[in-house]
């Protein structure tokens, strides 16, 4: 199957429209960025590059895609699929890229949640150290808790500071804030606070023990992740070997993309290879998650 000369502009327009449909949200700020992108693609004054051969609608669609891609990195799968589509002369890579967008979105969201969890864990450890230090310096528990840094602990933290400032139930507020992923250590802080209020035990010593235990657990988890880094690197390298094989075949003049996308045997190999690639990555991910003792 051959692709006519008019297909590249059609593919680019379809890619832009797919990106816009997946990423458009009503926002005043995005409207301002869209006007800036329109100006950029209209005369290229921001980059010094002009696009006189592109139609106005295509320039506008490309500007929308650029604005959407700034906040949604998973949309970069579409230009990559479009490039392979043009090289292989088949629409199949573009369809595969469209199917990869939600998968990439899930992976990016999971990575963002993991980073937020780690940030909350560090914030709890810092909170324990700061409150314990203020208590050692002679501050009252409520004042020390209000002055402690807690911005990274999420939207539940203002309720904790309000309870400490106005004489509310601080342990209950701490337990409520500890329900967030990564902030589970606040449950131990709440227990120390409750024991100090009811039994008169030293709150500073208890918080120091909680902070030390949380720091030791974090250090152990980081060491485990460092040991598993080699396994992850090996999995990524093995996953990229088919791409390297395609590049080597193209350099030798074998035209592997034409074989993959335009022959029954190539389509079968592409489907089987994709399934095996996905199964291998999933298997490696399960092994790493099981060794790490938590969901990635």
Write up what this structure looks like:
It is a single chain. This protein has helices at 7-23, 28-43, 56-71, 77-88, 92-136, 141-147, 157-166, 170-177, 185-199, 203-251, 256-262, 264-292. By secondary structure, it is an all-alpha fold. Helix 4 (77-88) packs antiparallel against helix 5 (92-136) and helix 11 (256-262) crosses helix 12 (264-292). The longest helix has 49 residues, at 203-251. The two termini are 42 Å apart.
Q: TL;DR?
A:
This protein is mainly alpha-helical and 296 residues long. Helices cover 78% and strands 0% of the residues.
User: How many individual β-strands?
Assistant: 0
DSSP summary: helix tally: 12
**Structural category:** mainly alpha
Helix content: over 70%
Major sheet = none
Order of helices and strands: HHHHHHHHHHHH
Distance between the termini: 42 Å
> Rg from C-alpha positions?
27 Å
Shape: elongated
How large a portion of the residues is in β-strands, by DSSP E? under 5%
Average the pLDDT over all residues and give the rounded result.
77
Q: Unreliable stretches, pLDDT < 50, 5 or more residues?
A: 1-34, 37-51
Record the SSE blueprint.
Layout: H1 7-23, H2 28-43, H3 56-71, H4 77-88, H5 92-136, H6 141-147, H7 157-166, H8 170-177, H9 185-199, H10 203-251, H11 256-262, H12 264-292
